[in-house]
Amino acid sequence: MNKTGFIFDLDGVIVDTAKYHYLAWKNLANELGFEFTHEQNELFKGVSRKRCLEILLDIGGIKANQEEFDTWMFEKNEDYLKYIEKMDESEILPDVPKVLEYLQVGKFPIALGSASKNAQPILKKVNLLSYFDTIVDGNNVTKAKPDPEVFLIAADQLGVDPENCIVFEDAQAGIQAANAANMISIGIGDAKTLSEADYNFNDFTEIDLKFLEGLTKNNI
Ligand code: B16
Ligand code: MG
User: Fold this and answer.
1) What confidence score (pLDDT) does residue 31 get?
2) Taking ligand 2, which is a single-atom ion, which protein residues have CB atoms under 5 Å away?
3) pTM value?
């Protein structure tokens, strides 16, 4: 095996669903009697739903029994799904289709590697599902990023060696997961936050197709 595989995170890389996660967590916080800010929402990026609720309850100083915890996770997700329901192609982040198209035409294997359990319906909503050879998400993993599990499963399903995989990520934990998987990590977003990435770009408009070609030429 010596081909190059590409693995995309979802939230913050393909679409900005963080704003909908924020609204749904804020609604829950308000219902529980406290505020939740945009700054605090930064802590939630790339983090599993369960871990997000643990952090939220810490912020609010609230102790929950198992039944309450499960109810609030469910409520938050139901609320989040109402925002997702209204999504369409206009919410795809700039130049993502250009890169996906280039990779698909070049017959490079493409995977999604996301913490979200809603990845499949979101990709369907924005009409990008057909680009992905495999989808590995929160439903398929036992360990959250920064554990490399999600990306290693993706590489395995693509039939590509981990060291020949290139990961696009917007969260620090995601970059750490890619590095731990021995993959090439590309940080999308704030270079300071993502300083552990092998390469950094603010968004896909900054990624020249020649740059991708350069990364793949030894592995095709
Ligand atoms: P869900 P990613 C992550 O997506 C989000 O960044 C994170 O904020 C969210 O809690 C997590 O998915 C779980 O999402 O509640 O839909 O299962 O960045 O890994 O694509
Ligand atoms: Mg993300």
Assistant:
1) 98
2) 9, 11-12, 46, 170-171
3) 0.95
